[in-house]
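Hey, quick one: can you model this chain's 3D structure?
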Amino acid sequence: MKINSNFDAGNIHVIEAENPGNIRLRIRHDHNSDFYQWFNFRLTGAKGQLCAMTIENAAGAAYADGWKDYQACASYDREEWFRVSTVYHDGEITIQHIPESDSVYYAYFAPYSMERHHSLVSQAAEHEKVSLHVIGETLDGQDMDLLTIGDMAVGKKVIWVIARQHPGESMAEWFVEGFLDRLLDDEDALSRSLLERAVFYVVPNMNPDGSRRGHLRTNAAGANLNREWENPSVENCPEVFYVRGKMDEVGMDLVLDAHGDEALPYNFIACFDGIPDVDSAKLDLAYDYQRQLMQFNPDFQMEYGYPKDAPGAANMTIGTNQMAHRYQAVAMTLEMPFKDTANCPDPEQGWSPERCRKLGYSNLDALAAIIDRL
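Sure thing. Here's the predicted structure for all 374 residues.
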C-alpha cells in the first residue's frame, strides 16, 4: 500500500501508511503562506480493504468551518468523481472508504489539472472566433493564457470572465469550461446573439503556479491574488499585473470572477455594494443578473451569501471591488460550494464538475437578459 501526491495539483504529507485502518496524513501549507486546506493524493494497493485516512492538521486549515458536513471527493479514473464518508472530529477529518480498485484518488474537490487547462485553451483556440494571447509569465515561468472571443467592433460590450485566483477552487475552471462550451457552440442561437453584441475576454486560470503546486489560495510567492488588485507588481503577483494591464487597455462593461467557498453550501454572487463611488444603476443591474440566473438555474440562489459591505467600507484590494471602481463596470464574484448544495443536494456526487459546467452554461442566459442595459 502506498500514498503519493507527487503530481500536478497534488498535496499531502504522509505520517504513517502501513495499516489501511490507521493512515495518518497532514496537508502541506501553501508556499510562503499559512494557508492550507487543499488535498489531492493517490492511494494504491488497498483494493477491497476498509481504509481510514485521518488528516491530523484539519483544525488549523484556512477555513475549519468548511469541514462541517463536508464529504471528500474520490475517483478511480480522474474523470468521474463521487463523495465518500468523511467525519470531522476533535480537529481531525477522517475519510473512510473501501476502494474497488488498486488505484484511487482522493481530493478536496475534483481537480482541474494544468494538463486539462492546456487542452481547454488549445481546443478553444481552434475556433475561428477565438484568439489566444499569452499576456505574460508567472513566477514559475508558466504562460498566462487569455482567450479573446469575438471582434472588438464599435458599440460592442466588453465582457470579462476570470477564474481560479485561488487555485484550490478548482470548481471555477470547471465553470469556465461549461461557459466556453456553450459560447463557442455555433449551433446555439443565444451564443451567436451574444457574440454579435459583445467581445469576451476569458482567463480560465488566473493562478497556474498555485494550481500546479497544489496550493489552496496563493501563487508561487505566497500572494493571495484576490488581495492584490489595487497595486499589483510583477515581482509579487505578475498574474494580476498582466491581466489588469490588459483590462486597462480594452476596458470592461461586466466581469464575472469565479470562485469557491469552503463553508457555505450554496451558489451565490457577491457584488460591489461598499465601494466609495458606487453606481446604483450598475449595482441594480448586478442584482437583476442574479435574479435572472436564479430563474435559469435552480442551483443558484440569493438568500444566502456574504454580508454586504457598508457604504464606503469595501476592501479595494479585492478584484470585484477594484474592477467595479476602476472601470465603472458591473463586477461580480460568483461563489460555488466545496460541499453539496443545501437547496438541491446530490448525495452521490455533491456539488460536481458537471453541475459547475451547467452553471457556466446558464450564466449566458442571465447575461443575455441584461446585456443591452450595460
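One thing worth noting: The chain is about 25% helix and 25% strand.
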